[in-house]
Design a protein that fits this description.
Blueprint lengths: L10 H16 L3 H17 L1 H17 L4 H7 L3 H16 L7 E6 L5 E8 L2 E6 L4 H12 L3 E5 L5 H17 L7 E3 L6 H7 L7 E5 L2 H10 L12 E5 L5 H13 L8 E7 H16 L4 E4 L1 H8 L6 E4 L13 E7 L2 H11 L4 E5 L3 H10 L4 E4 L19 E2 L7 E2 L6 E8 L7
Parallel strand pairs: 3-4, 3-6, 4-5, 7-8, 7-12, 8-11, 9-10, 9-11, 12-13
Antiparallel strand pairs: 1-2, 2-16, 14-15
Length: 428
């Protein structure tokens, strides 16, 4: 496992090493950064059996500890998922490289030339839970963009993450780069999270990927800029003009294609004029997957009158403020487009929300009024993903508005510096 476990209690040492590594990475040509990604993909394939064995131990422990099926699914690595990680790593090599890109050129009246150049952010501190694939996603994007990273995963994935970081560090060593470019905090002591949040002498950005509690902790305790997001209370609104047959397909995909992730559907809003037709149809489709419906009174009356086979219960007081991450779906009937928008504005976390409609004016109104990181027309919310957006992997989905919003790919892991070219210029 990672040799860095011996330093796990000394975050200052880890931070100092990460900062030094980030300076090395920042000056590398693209070919060197791509070489380490190719080596990483090779190592993932070569050591697949070892990685799967370590992950199986984590899954067994998680099941014994009573983790939900949704969490176990997020934790699980399979041969197919591992092969996908290797393939995604190779795809990132071929993506446009933002580092070093020069833009916004201008010449001042005094003749000095100015432009911006894309540069790495430096050192990222990433705190995440339950998903070992995130370890590879972060490493891939960081190494492509010349950033170093300090990683802190959940205790339920400790074996998996240590094995993955060992693979990453082996790839770094194979290509002559410092192992300390990607480091892992393997001690489960929660106090180390707070210590990481105050390591501003070495860490340039904190990215939490987890529940609301983790995000709140980071916002309250961090002395480092924090990118928040990844918590998705996602909505689809079925408009009175929607193609109902296609709408059933979209809702099914958004809810059940992978219910344990942040872009899965949580609340279905249906216009009253189509509710009596649409709700039984979508309930019958979702019943095949064991989806439980939590319905407000108007939707409940329609659903209880049908023979669709779905489990239906009255919606609780806070059910429309839940990110379910499981086979549960809130359902509500609304009278107007504006009522649907108002519900989303009140309950959405600004992640992914969509409208199903054939009315272009309604689509335009929805796009203008719904202020989420991703807004969809006639599409599943499940597309909010760096891979699906053509960004390669993603380090997080940001739901804030400064610096980055939505899936954070390569460009979002860079900043810029101004470069001025003069000829003995002095300011008057």
């Amino acid at each position: 496992m990672s040799t860095l476990q011996t330093e796990r209690l000394n975050l200052t040492a880890l931070g100092r090493a990460a900062k030094a590594a980030s300076r090395t990475l920042a000056t590398l040509p693209a070919a060197r950064r791509h070489a380490v990604l190719a080596a990483l993909a090779d190592e993932l394939e070569r050591r697949a059996d070892e990685l799967l064995a370590q992950n199986a131990l984590d899954v067994d422990d998680g099941r014994a500890a009573g983790l939900s099926e949704a969490l176990l699914d997020r934790l699980l690595l399979t041969p197919e998922r591992l092969a996908g990680l290797a393939a995604d790593t190779r795809r990132v090599i071929d993506l446009p490289d933002p580092v070093g890109r020069e833009y916004d050129h201008r010449t001042l009246p005094n003749g000095m030339r100015l432009y911006k150049r894309r540069v790495p952010i430096g050192v990222l501190g990433v705190i995440y839970e339950a998903r070992p694939n995130v370890t590879i996603d972060i490493a891939t994007l960081c190494l492509k963009t010349g950033n170093a990273a300090l990683l802190r995963g959940g205790s339920e994935t400790l074996r998996s993450n240590l094995a993955l970081v060992d693979v990453i560090q082996a790839a770094l060593e194979r290509t002559g780069l410092p192992r300390t470019a990607i480091q892992y905090i393997g001690d489960p002591d929660r106090a180390l999270v707070t210590e990481l949040l105050r390591l501003d002498a070495y860490v340039d950005m904190i990215i939490p990927r987890g529940g609301a509690g983790l995000h709140q902790l980071c916002k309250e305790k961090s002395t480092i800029p924090v990118i928040t997001g990844g918590i998705g209370i996602c909505h689809l609104y079925v408009d009175e003009s929607a193609d109902l047959e296609r709408a059933v397909d979209v809702v099914e995909n958004a809810k059940v294609q992978r219910p344990s992730v942040c872009n899965a559907l949580d609340t279905l809003l249906v216009h009253r004029s189509v509710a009596a037709t649409f709700l039984p149809a979508v309930a019958a489709r979702l019943a095949r997957h064991g989806v439980e419906l939590r319905a407000e009174p108007a939707a409940l009356e329609i659903l209880q009158a049908g023979t669709h086979g779905a489990s239906v219960t009255p919606a609780g007081l806070y059910d429309f403020d839940q990110e379910w991450l499981s086979l549960v779906l809130g359902v509500k009937v609304v009278d107007t487009l504006d009522e649907a928008i108002a519900h989303i504005q009140e309950h959405s976390t600004g992640h992914s929300d969509g409208i199903l409609t054939t009315n272009q004016a309604h689509a335009a109104r929805f796009i203008d009024a719904v202020d989420s990181a991703a807004v969809y027309v006639n599409a599943s919310t499940r597309f909010t993903d760096g891979g699906q957006f053509g960004l390669g992997a993603e380090v997080a989905v940001s739901t804030q508005k400064l610096h980055a919003r939505g899936p954070m790919g390569l460009e979002e892991l860079t900043t810029y510096k101004w470069i001025g070219i003069g000829d003995g210029h002095v300011r008057a």
